[in-house]
Amino acid sequence: YDYVCSESMRSLNYLSMKYNLCVGNGILTCENIDQAYNRSHVDKGNKGGSAAKAALALVKIKKNFRI
């Protein structure tokens, strides 16, 4: 679990730096099915929806600044 979490972040950071990209992270790092449900369910935490909204906000910023 800890290895997968840290390597996922390390790899995303690497891609961001290598290709000069803004990379969002919507990976749920859950220790069990209850955590996954509470973080992903629309009526609970809905972390996936939050990650998607953040990505769309970054697209809008990029368009506004024409970068």
Description:
It is a single chain. The chain is mostly helical. The protein has one domain. Helices cover 67% and strands 0% of the residues. The chain has three helices and no strands. The protein is flat. The mean pLDDT is 90.
Give short descriptive properties of this protein.
67 residues, mainly alpha, 67% helix, flat
- Number of helical segments with 4 or more residues: 3
Tertiary shape? flat
Order of helices and strands: HHH
Largest sheet: none
pLDDT < 50 stretches: none
- Could you give the count of β-strands? 0
Mean pLDDT: 90
* Rg over CA atoms: 14 Å
Structural class: mainly alpha
Helix content: 55-70%
Question: What's the topology here?
Answer:
Layout (H helix, E strand, L loop, with lengths): L1 H18 L13 H8 L6 H19 L2
Concise structural overview:
With 67 residues, the chain is mainly α.
